[in-house]
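Response to reviewer comment R2.3. The reviewers asked that we include at least one raw input/output pair. We reproduce the pair for 6,7-dimethyl-8-ribityllumazine synthase here without editing.
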Amino acid sequence: MAGAETHHILPLPAFDRPVRLLIVVAPYYLDIAENLVRGARAVAEAAGAQVERVDVPGALEVPSAIAMAARMADYDGFVALGCVIRGETTHYDTVCNDSSRALSLMGLEGVCIGNGILTVENRAQAEVRADPDGQNKGGGAAAAALHLVALSRRWSRKTKGIGFRPTGEPFRIAGEQGGKDTA
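Raw output as returned:
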């Protein structure tokens, strides 16, 4: 059981300029969603981040809203929050897999996202995970987004040359020496 385990938690990153996070929430289970948001806000505020919130109908709409905001708005990172509780049909699998996959694909494209969409078997599991004084998965999602923003800022300062050529080294075509073709 994960609740009995201890985990290492990275300290929150420090920022030299303000961070803007958008929390995108599916409040289908309102009490659980509000606890997730409370945890996310507390962690974001502890790192000095500015936070805005938007609500969407369900977990499947969370990635769409984040994708739109990533294209059309000015946020550094995103926190995806919601809860999917297993029901009697396979809809649970579709919602869990598709929302997670969409968020992961955006992450692979460089969008800084903390995924706090709970996927649980029952309400009791969701309540424990959402509780800011318990497992605080909303806070964990905000922390994940902040860590990715910090990495993004760190790496965006670097410039890449062509291929793996160190910056400042002259570019040479195969067969050339000293800028002159030897072939």
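The chain is about 40% helix and 20% strand. Residues 162-167, 179-183 have pLDDT under 50 and may be disordered. Further pairs are available on request from the corresponding author.
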